[in-house]
Write a structure and sequence with these properties.
By secondary structure, this protein is an alpha/beta fold. The protein is built from 13 helices and 10 strands. It has helices spanning 13-23, 45-61, 72-77, 79-86, 100-107, 122-127, 129-137, 151-156, 163-179, 197-202, 214-227, 229-232, 249-260; strands spanning 4-8, 29-33, 66-69, 95-97, 115-120, 142-147, 185-188, 209-211, 241-245, 266-268. α1 (13-23) links the parallel β1 and β2. α1 (13-23) packs across α11 (214-227) and α5 (100-107) packs across α7. It binds D-glutamic acid (DGL). Residues 8-10, 12, 38-41, 71-73, 121, 124, 152, 190-192 line the site of D-glutamic acid (DGL). Residues 8-10, 12, 38-41, 71-73, 121, 124, 152, 190-192 line the site of D-glutamic acid.
């Protein structure tokens, strides 16, 4: 069995997995949420890299050849080092992909004003990854970033339906639009944020395109698999989905439904904490 691995610090990657499972239902999948150590968003580069690498290694130990980091923070802070430094030493034919590049590649299709807002965790924003990646594809696009450090903790704690959350959504959006009034496209550059989509829309000026990453990442993965038959041919196609968490199975199963849109049953894994 050679499943596709999908990783997030917690539940957010399930919003991406939803889109991937809908577009590519034939493959076998393993999902791992590192809930015991989430959120990653305010952690240092070294810590995010170390945690992400441990999880990637776990996927490879399970027989995966392809792992998707369905987490912007891990993609921003760990992906490049893993691809350049660790993968070559982990044996041939193993690949790790992230969510930033495919999102950056697509964003130019949405904006008319060429002025784009990016909402993410503190880690994603401070890495500058979106600014770099978007300017690689579209040198004419201006990118304005806003860190929303409290959104993920609210979501991970199941608190995101509280009225108090609105205060932070409004405040963070005001700070984004204070940077530029001609922003016409806002990217949810954190896989947790689609759960707040309705509330975010409430505080966005009329006519702004609000972009979630799930369908973009799923489309990009489908394209990648078409272009890499040597990988696609070894991926197993039993249509199975298995869910793993580093924390409580009960909590995972309770929360996951809201992100994945259907009930899931999960298993616990223990990663050696360094
Ligand atoms: N879902 C993650 C992201 O896309 C995570 C956040 C976190 O753990 O802070 O950035």
């Amino acid at each position: 069995m050679c499943p596709i691995g999908i990783f997030d610090s917690g539940y957010g990657g399930l919003t991406v997995f939803r889109s991937i499972a809908d577009q590519l239902p034939q493959y076998d999948y393993l999902y791992l949420g590192d809930n015991a150590r989430a959120p990653y968003g305010n952690r240092s580069f070294e810590t995010v890299y170390e945690y992400t690498l441990e999880c990637v290694q776990w996927f490879f130990d399970q027989g995966c050849k392809l792992v998707i980091l369905a987490c912007n923070t891990a993609s921003a802070k760990a992906l490049r080092t893993i691809q350049q430094k660790d993968l070559p030493a982990m044996g041939p034919g193993k690949r790790v992909l992230g969510v930033i590049r495919p999102s950056a590649e697509e964003i130019g299709r949405f904006t008319q004003t060429r002025s784009v807002g990016v909402l993410g965790t503190k880690g994603t924003v401070s890495s500058g990854s979106y600014v770099t990646e978007i300017s690689n594809f579209y040198p004419d696009i201006r990118v304005y970033q806003q860190a929303c450090p409290l959104w993920v903790p609210f979501i991970e704690n199941g608190d995101y339906k509280n009225d108090g959350v609105d205060y932070y959504i409004r405040k963070d959006l005001e700070q984004l639009f204070a940077q530029a009034t001609d922003i016409d496209t806002v990217l949810l550059a954190c896989t947790h944020y689609p759960l707040l989509e309705d509330r975010i829309r409430k505080y966005l000026p009329e006519g702004i395109a609000l972009i979630a990453q799930g369908p973009i990442v799923a489309g990009s993965l489908a394209d990648y698999l078409r272009r890499h038959p040597e990988l696609t041919n070894i991926l197993s196609q039993g249509g199975s989905r298995s869910f793993f968490t580093t924390d409580s199975v009960t909590d995972f199963e309770e929360h996951a439904t809201q992100f994945f849109g259907e009930a899931v049953s999960a298993q616990h894994i223990h990663l050696e904490l360094k």
